[in-house]
Amino acid sequence: MQTIQANGYPVLFGEKEYETLNAFIKNNNYSNLFILVDSHTNELCLLRFLSFLVTDKTIEIIEIESGEAEKNIHTCVEIWNILTELGADRKTLLINIGGGVITDIGGFVASTFKRGIDFINIPTTLLAMVDASIGGKNGVDLGNLKNQIGVINVPKMVLIDTEFLSTLPQNEMRSGLAEMLKHGLIFDASYWSQFSDLSQTDFADFDELIHRSIEIKNEIVMQDPTENGIRKALNFGHTLGHAIESYFLENQNKKTLLHGEAIAVGMILESFISRQKGLLSAAEYQEIKTAITAIFDPIIFEENDLQPILDLLIHDKKNEYGKIQFALLEGIGKIKINQEVDNELIIESFKDYKN
After folding, report:
1. 130-184: per-residue pLDDT in tens?
2. For the whole model, what pTM was predicted?
3. Of 256, 273, 315, 272, which is closest to residue 70 (Cα–Cα)?
4. C-alpha–C-alpha distance, residues 108 and 275, integer Å
């Protein structure tokens, strides 16, 4: 499959591209290699990666626990200390093998260690392949607040090996599917239509769907690398989705949601808001709601959940001058950024979702 040229780095596809990776490592004469994994990818993915890696450099493995709870500055300190103790220097290469938590935290650690060392992302989940590992956003959560601390800094390359997807449970695959649905809704109506009725989707061509999803995100990021304009389109579903994800993460009475599960709810809510603001037709809204609810189980919201979720919106990174900013749909395949929405309409969207 054709390489996608991103902003300063290539996104490579398939087994044969491990040869490209090996040549890159050799040609750049790195002093040593560190591989960051979590407990899952250490068990399920690392061996496959090492079977393709050809190098005479010293290799050190750093393992952290899996899960969003590990995506914090304390974990970064632990990794920085390990890098220091094991002799990492400015010519060290860090290879991040895992889902979005690993690529986010690994990119941040590399970008800040000794003012920056090179890193490569090997995403192993669908979510990381189509979203987290692409675009140069790296960082960690601040308490329960998503991605509050971080930098924009691109890897040397991203290598997509879809064989890793065979290690994923169904709920993790659905989590990644949410971002693919989003890419169609904000940018490409014909791409969205391939998912709007999953019974008509030929998943034998799923690699092609992944490739197109990455193309869409890359096209947007290339226009606006630092998120001053159109890149905000990628936040559709995320303003409310991140608040819901954070609330469920901190609340012991709630089941922790996967990122895509929260974003799926966020896309329905924000599609309703788009409809109420006259940007989306009733038929389009119903199409979106029907398609997403056919894939994702409903999330139960109690009356006393809504105010804490609203309170979390103030911490959204897109906000400017204290105003909450939404990216809303202007029809399927188009987006309108920097839209202010009042709390009454947000509450109305939750009521519609519950119905």
Report:
1. 998 899 999 999 998 889 999 999 999 999 999 999 999 999 999 999 999 999 9
2. 0.93
3. 256
4. 38
Mean pLDDT for the chain overall: 94
Contact between 239 and 310 under an 8 Å Cβ cutoff? The reply is no
Task: Give the number of other Cβ atoms within 10 Å of residue 8's Cβ.
Answer: 11
* Secondary element (H or E) of residue 183: helix 170-187
Q: Delineate the domains of the chain, giving CATH numbers in brackets.
A: 4-167 (3.40.50.1970), 170-354 (1.20.1090.10)
Region of residue 100 (left: phi > 0; alpha: psi -120 to 50; beta: else)? alpha
Please provide the size of the chain in residues.
Answer: 355
User: Which runs of E-coded beta strand occur in the chain?
Assistant: 4-5, 10-13, 32-38, 59-64, 92-98, 118-123, 137-142, 145-152, 158-160, 325-329, 335-340
Question: Which pair of structure tokens corresponds to residue 37?
Answer: 């994994």
